[in-house]
Amino acid sequence: MADRSGSDEVPHPEALDAWFHLTAVRRDGDRIRYYGEPLVPRSRLADELVPAFEAAGYELRFSTDDAGNDVLVARPIGSSATSETDPRLNVALLAATVFTTMLVGATVWYYIPLSAIVANPLRILEAWPFTAAVLGVLLTHEMGHYVAGRRHGVDVSLPYVIPFYVPFGTMGAVIRMRSRVPDREALLDIGAAGPLAGLVATIVVTAIGVSLDPMTVPQRVLQGSGEAIVFHNPPLLDLIATALGQQTGYSDPSQAVHPVVMGGWIGMFFTVLNLLPVGQLDGGHILRAVLGRRQETVAALVPGALFGLAGYLWYVRDLGMQNSVGLWLLWGFITLFVSFGGSADPIDETPLGWKRVAVAALTFALGALCFLPVPIEIATV
After folding, report:
1. What is the pLDDT, as a whole number, of residue 116?
2. What is the maximal distance between C-alpha atoms in the chain?
3. Residue 9 has what pLDDT?
4. Spatial separation of the C-alpha atoms in residues 376 and 326, rounded to whole Å
5. Do residues 339 and 300 lie in contact, with contact meaning Cβ atoms separated by under 8 Å?
6. In this protein, which residues make up the domain named Peptidase M50 (predicted)?
7. Among residues 277, 280, 311, which one has the least CA distance to residue 294?
8. Does residue 82 or residue 123 have the better pLDDT?
9. How would you classify the pairing of strands 227-231 and 170-174?
10. Helices and strands (DSSP H and E) totals, the chain
11. SS3 of 217, please?
12. What is the mean pLDDT of the chain?
């Protein structure tokens, strides 16, 4: 016999009868699980039931148990990340990243000695174009996710920008989805909005950067250790420069592209990493929306593909760990770890229409224009 005893805090089980054929209700800690069968499409089920549960202080999501039975899971909003709305951490991380990108920009890309910055800290401000380019690209990417999430009624956090040091001053930015995704259309829109918005900003930043006068490399740098980090141009960067009739390199070693170009390069680099089709990465969201649970099969192949790429560079191209071999090995392990977390599960599994499938294909195609097997190399100069 089904246990239909409810809770005084959440809608009574009988309130679900018009939308969900209930067979059992069970408590699991602070969660309440409603077992049964939806009587309406899952997207409508969410629209009808979620407001009532949220008003009672519960988050509601659609799930399945190990036997494949449909389950509605209600949990207190305060028990999850959905109650995290204090923006102070976001602001603090952004302020720290402004500082680290300016410091890296000044010392690495504007060739200002650290001793000169210590003597006159205001010299760090000379790197503001680099900081504006890098953060402009990253924040535009994340705000694409944010706007798309809000449009679909998904509770998403403000961006968390991650400060770091060389060579970029940051490790990128992330946002958190703190509530359920209603359907595969919403998942596709949220997943693709970031890369597409970020690529628009990347193209603008790159176009500005290649149009600016080159930097003069000081003699003390030219007479240095004899080794330098070389950032190879992805196809998209070369396409932009060619379209504008601009250079992306100089035969004269005392000339270097303007640091703003690196803002575009960084945008393309992070786009490639974000579009890896695994777990909670953008590519994982997009492919999950397109393929449904079959995305997990593709995700299982990603770490092996990255390890294979690293092996190819090591054994066939005879490149060392510092010449992108280590990069792809690292990301092989990262994607292996990320894959265990699984992908986002939308409430409604209705397949996408052809227009959104085309958007997904376009997003991956643009990402392919940002890919290079050897994006970074240590070269003798």
Report:
1. 95
2. 84
3. 64
4. 10
5. yes
6. 130-295
7. 277
8. 123
9. unpaired
10. 12, 10
11. coil
12. 88
Confidence of residue 7 (pLDDT cuts 50, 70, 90): very low
Assigned token pair, 258: 């303007």
| Phi, psi torsion values for 156, nearest 5 degrees | -120, 145
Question: Strand 376-380 vs strand 20-28: parallel, antiparallel, or unpaired?
Answer: unpaired
Q: Where are the alpha helices (DSSP H) in 7-73?
A: 42-55
State the Cα–Cα distance between residues 292 and 348, nearest whole angstrom. Answer: 10
Of 369, 376, 377, 378, give the one whose Cα is nearest residue 234.
369
Helices (H), 56-183: 88-104, 114-119, 128-151
Instruction: Enter the tokens of residue 273.
Output: 């990493």
Q: How far apart are CA 151 and CA 167, in angstroms?
A: 35
Q: pLDDT (tens digit, 9 = 90+) per residue, 196-216?
A: 999 999 999 999 999 999 999
Bridge partners, residue 32, by sequence = 27, 74
Q: Any bridge partners for residue 378, and if so which?
A: 229
Inter-CA distances, 264 with 257, 353, 357, Å = 12, 32, 27
Whether the CB-CB separation of 171 and 164 falls below 8 Å is answered with yes
Q: How far apart (Å, rounded) are the C-alpha atoms in residues 268 and 100?
A: 20
The pair of three-digit structure tokens given for residue 361, joined into one six-digit string: 């294909």
How far apart CA 233 and CA 376 sit, in angstroms, is 9
CB atoms within 10 A of CB 227: 11
SS3 label, residue 41: coil
Task: Give the helix ranges, DSSP H, for the chain.
Answer: 42-55, 88-104, 114-119, 128-151, 184-211, 219-222, 235-244, 259-274, 282-291, 295-315, 326-340, 354-368
pLDDT at 43 over 70: no
pLDDT score recorded for residue 82:
41
C-alpha closest to that of 159 among 137, 182, 179, 181: 137
Topology adopted by domain 13-82: Gyrase A; domain 2 (3.30.1360)
In the numeric block, the tokens 């979620």 are attached to: 50
Average pLDDT over residues 121-148: 97
**Per 3-state DSSP, what percentage of the chain is helix, strand, and coil (rounded to 5)?**
55, 15, 30
∠134-136-140 over CA atoms, to 5°?
125
User: What pLDDT, on a 0 to 100 scale, did the predictor assign at position 85?
Assistant: 62
The domains of the chain are located at 13-82, 84-380
